[in-house]
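Design a sequence for this backbone.
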């Protein structure tokens, strides 16, 4: 009997300790409003008191043991889940660096397969795009093979690639991000399958974003005006903005596997969020939009190309277009996003058109998609009226569906899977504390959110651009009326109540 009584007290003490661990974990996550946290504290204390009270009586011994074992499991599992959520958020939030890769490429069928095989081979390098890190790769490679490289300089990245394809050289050095934009050129659509990497040099750089504020979009007139297109845009009145409202640039690509690798962005969505109104406006800008970049001195480029110079250049280009620079970015990998949708148990997405893609039959109206089906839905553009315009709308429809599912009780059914899916598929410079404050506000005040979408439009043409000054690529000249309509919607959402 004495041994049983000791067991009761040990289990009761362990139950109380794990209850405290659970409370500490919840406090560290900092998402629970004080009124709910007080309830949790009271619950732990009451359970501990009841368990301790039962241990005083012979008849209550078995009951106290059952209660202790039960709540040891509950507290332990809950503490694990909360800590897992906190650790995952720490991994995907507050990220302010990007990874870059400069590589040595050879033909896909080349016998060159390693750095050592480059000894004595003719290697093309370009003297313009990312020359600093090209030089660093060359220096590192020479040290590795203990031999000087046989280099041949070219004035542009395209000429550098052509030197290999024509057989003038055996290899070329180039920032890997540029390869993706070559696929926009006729004759280079399959370039990624025609070459391979035999040596690479990776480096990181800090993302530097200017303090968000109203920025003049008058310089759009200078950039586009020279081509003879009307770009007279409405100016945002940022003085009337709600101080708690903010803007997030959502960038995504279905061709990359590493979050915050510098690369072109096939998804360019601005989320204008007003927590006090509980309103979100998603504005999609087509990847081919022909706009000046912050680094281009008024010369226009495709918006998707801005990403190869860093996420901050994409944000700056959109800031110049709409008159407000985002403070935050969130990079989403749509291949990895498949895991998140599966973890949510699928999503219900509205499609304006019926089509089939990657073996998935999409009907007009609402569709229930798993991860792979949703990915097929957001990838398609060739079968759709409007092409890439409609693809952007479909991407926003999936984001809407994910927000709706994540805000429902269904998120609790596979909480661990959802948190796991975020690692490697999502990264943002939004801090954990900021996210915690938003969640706490929502839990404290309640209320549903309104999510609206809008997509700007334009006219297609072929032109040279900042990233490809000697080539002609497809671009979309902005339609000023649709840009102004977007600005009006932005103003309405961001204004104070």
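Sequence:
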């Amino acid at each position: 009997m004495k041994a049983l009584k000791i067991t009761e007290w040990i289990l009761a003490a362990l139950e109380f300790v794990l209850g405290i661990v659970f409370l500490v974990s919840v406090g560290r996550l900092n998402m629970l409003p004080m009124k709910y946290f007080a309830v949790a504290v009271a619950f732990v204390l009451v359970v501990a008191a009841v368990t301790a009270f039962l241990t005083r009586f012979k008849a209550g011994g078995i009951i106290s043991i059952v209660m202790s074992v039960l709540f040891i499991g509950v507290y332990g599992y809950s503490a694990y889940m909360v800590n897992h959520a906190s650790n995952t958020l720490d991994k995907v939030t507050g990220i302010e660096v990007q990874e870059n890769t400069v590589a040595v490429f050879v033909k896909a069928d080349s016998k060159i397969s390693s750095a050592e095989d480059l000894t004595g081979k003719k290697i093309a390098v370009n003297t313009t795009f990312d020359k600093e890190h090209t030089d660093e790769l060359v220096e590192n490679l020479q040290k590795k093979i203990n031999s000087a490289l046989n280099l041949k300089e070219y004035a542009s990245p395209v000429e550098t690639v052509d030197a290999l394809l024509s057989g003038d050289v055996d290899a070329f050095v180039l920032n890997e991000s540029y390869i993706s934009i070559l696929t926009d050129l006729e004759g280079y659509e399959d370039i990624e399958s025609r070459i391979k990497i035999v040596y690479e040099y990776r480096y990181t750089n800090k993302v530097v974003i200017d303090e968000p504020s109203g920025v003049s979009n008058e310089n759009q007139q200078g950039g586009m005006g020279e081509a003879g297109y009307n770009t007279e845009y409405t100016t945002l009145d940022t003085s009337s903005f709600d101080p708690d409202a903010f803007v997030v640039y959502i960038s995504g690509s279905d061709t990359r596997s590493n979050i915050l690798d510098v690369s072109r962005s096939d998804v360019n969505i601005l989320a204008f969020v007003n927590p006090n109104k509980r309103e979100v406006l998603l504005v999609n800008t087509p990847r081919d939009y022909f706009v000046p970049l912050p680094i281009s001195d008024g010369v226009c480029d495709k918006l998707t190309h801005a990403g190869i110079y860093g996420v901050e250049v994409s944000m700056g280009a959109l800031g110049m277009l709409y008159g407000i620079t985002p403070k935050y970015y969130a990079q989403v990998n749509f291949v990895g996003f498949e895991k998140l949708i599966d973890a949510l148990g699928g999503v219900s997405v509205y499609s304006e058109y019926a089509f089939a893609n990657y073996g998935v039959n999409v009907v007009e109206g609402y569709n229930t998609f798993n991860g792979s089906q949703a990915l097929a839905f957001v990838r398609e553009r060739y079968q759709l009226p409007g092409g890439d315009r409609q693809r952007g709308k479909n991407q926003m429809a999936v984001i809407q569906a994910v927000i709706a599912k994540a805000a429902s009780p269904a998120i609790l059914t596979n909480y661990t899977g959802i948190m796991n899916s975020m690692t490697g598929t999502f990264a943002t410079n939004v801090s954990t504390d900021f996210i915690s404050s938003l969640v706490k506000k929502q839990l404290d005040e309640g209320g549903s959110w309104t999510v609206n979408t809008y997509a700007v439009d334009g006219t297609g043409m072929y032109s040279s651009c900042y990233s490809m000054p000697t080539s002609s690529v497809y671009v979309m000249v902005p339609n000023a009326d649709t840009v102004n309509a977007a600005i009006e919607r932005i103003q309405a959402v961001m204004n104070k109540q």
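The mean pLDDT is 86.
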